[in-house]
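Dear U.,

For the methods section draft, I wanted the exact inputs and outputs in one place so we can describe them consistently. I've listed the two proteins in the order they'll appear in the manuscript figures. Please don't edit the token lines directly; just add comments below if something needs changing.

First protein:
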Amino acid sequence: MASGRQSSREVETEAEAETDKTLANIEPEPDKTFANIVSAYTSRFGQNDDQTTVTEEQRTKRQTAAAELADSYYDFASTAYENGWSTHFHYTPFAPHDTIQSALAFYEHRLALLMGLRPGMKVLDVGCGIGGPAREIAKFVGCEVVGVTINQAQVDRAIYLTALEGLSGKCTFVKADFLNLPFAPSSFDAAYAIEATVHSPSLQKVYTNIWRVLKPGAVFGLSEWVMTEKFDPLDPKHIGIRNRLERGNGLCNLHTSEQARAAMIGTGFDVFHDEDYAQHFAWLSAKRGNGDGNGTDIRLYNHNHNHDHTSQNEQHQLQQHHHHIYLDSPVLVPFLADPIPAHPVHQATTTSPSSSQSQSSPATKRTTTNASTSYSSSSLNLRPAPPSSTSTSNSTPSRLIPPHRNWWWPLEGNTAQATTWTDYFTAWKMSKWPRRICYAVLWTLERLGVADRGTCAAMTTLAYCVDSAVEGGREGIFTPCWWFIGRKGGEENREGEEEGGGGGGGGGGELKEGSEQNILYYTSMDR
């Protein structure tokens, strides 16, 4: 018996020793205190203030740890985004009388309409943040949205906010790396990514993962952060702005619009909409005589146009460049109450909502009308068109034309352009003196041990986030929302789905030659 008890104790001792040995070989998880999170993030970037001495070696190291970089960034930035901006983690252009919230919602509604989302679809939100766009699109369309994000805190917050709105049955959220999406092939009817895939070290890799989980014929709507064609990689000023954008936003490698376009096409998406949405209302600036006259850069693909039915002035607007057609005009139709002009790209007869109807209530309205097409095209999405020639003619006094507001006006603290007190406060918080006072208070509290260590370092990072976006916007070398909307192959499947309606495939709002179709016109007060 004694020998047996001794053997048992020996076994227990050996087991404990083996456990201790195993634990000793396991690398302990880093202490996720606020200070360590911020320190882990900032250590991946250069320490000089202007960020002009960033080396390619540093950028390469960030690319190998892109997921960890984004995860650590949102561990401290998400709360600041939500409290200082919105639950919708993206920027937006502004109509003359938009609030920040209505502009963000219009952005998401417009993307959903251009993608042709319909009730009953299962839609993937790639890089969902805390679920603001997912909830808005689910309410607007009536579809099911599955959001993925690399950050567990964002997943938890998204689930909580979604439950508050009673949308848990429509929106679900998953912690996942969008370079390795945990879904079976052909799982989704559509997908969108709103200013999120910029965190990927390789755009084509993330687009390929999205391609894999989409059904044949499904539409992918992408809004990408890019450096524009004006970016000069040899200009030290431009280099500094790009580096500060990366430093302030958790980015490993900020790409150009041409690189994003090439990645979309290289992945195999048939891109049918290509636009710098940040310049959506830039025509207002040109009409008032304080712009360069360049409207939205819109590119329409693979369509034949009959120039016999166009005036010389209209023909002059169509400038051929390879397979692109450039229109120096904003995207207005079908998202305004203005009539669709007779134009070769979308010649349509329609009865639009009257201006009195569109201004009768601040609430957003939707009016459905019939449009008949009279152009030759095998398949044409309802496209952006120039404004009506009578709505903003050159004879209109500039004082009667609403002022143009750049997409970055809240970020530069321009309180004069706020349309509500809420927006005034949002812009005021980002102006110079409130930020300086806030930093001084936090610095004192951090030294006294009241605020977490690393708070001031986090605020410095967020200052890079805001200031670099303003710099890039002013220089015209950066846009936060270049839109590419493309379709995965499988047109034969798509036609069958359109005839039956309902899920699968993605709509795109196509009109066919000689056909009539109900078009959803989206109008709101003062638009």
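Second protein (the one for the lower panel):
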Amino acid sequence: MLNFFKRKIKEYECRRLTKRYCEPDKDFLNTCREEFIAKVCREIPPEKAKRFSLVVLGFKYSLAVFIILVFLGSGAAVYADRANVDYAHPLYSLKRTVEAVRVELASSQQQPVLQTELAQRRLDEIKKIEADMEIISQEVSMTTKEVSVAQGTATTTKEVAASTKKITIKKKTQQNLEAEQKKRQELMTNLRNQMRQELGSVIDEIENKRVEKTRMEKLCSSVLQIMEEDEETDGDETEEKRNERWNRFQKNCGEFIKIDWNNNQNDKSQESENKRN
């Protein structure tokens, strides 16, 4: 603790002396300021001086607003990344920007771990979208039933008019829900592709021996967990590509963790067969 305080005192003394010897002389600064103002006044005619002052004022205001926006934006971006906001959050795009910056700045040793973390985030976002899509599907089914009921219950002219209005509103709601469902499906497909790209990059790093052996077991376990959970969702890649990805993973991580991929695939095939039956 004593050494810590001694070091801090030395750092303070060093900063103070550096500032003392490097700081410009105040008389020199005042002279430069006077010469600058005199030169500006000579360059700007009196009739334009007022306009020039307004331009300077506007520039100061714009600069202040820009600095505030940058400050708020950086704070919001850090919050979005640390809080790991979901896909529907207003700050989601900022989170993705921070993630891209983190990947670019990460060292070769940190990159596989970071990419695995990002792949897990994509998987969590996919699960959230799937849950939301299930709710929307239920709302679409309910709206369809309400339209059918409304079409079959109207008898009088007044009831038919009211029913027609209700049906129009319900159909509009149904169209909006279906459009929202389609947007979520496209987003989920993109996220799944990005997740698999991250996993592919991690497997490349492992395959090229760029990961320390002390980290291999933990890293391979994390990748295995994501890949197994991904297999439980509807895939958008071909069977051939999926097999290739698993074979590469098994080849490079098999000596560090136990991978029972064949049994896992058989169980999933049996589960899919049971669902079809």
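Candidate sentences for the figure legend, describing the second protein: The chain has a mean pLDDT of 75. The CA atoms of residues 205 and 211 lie 6 Å apart.

Thanks,
Y.
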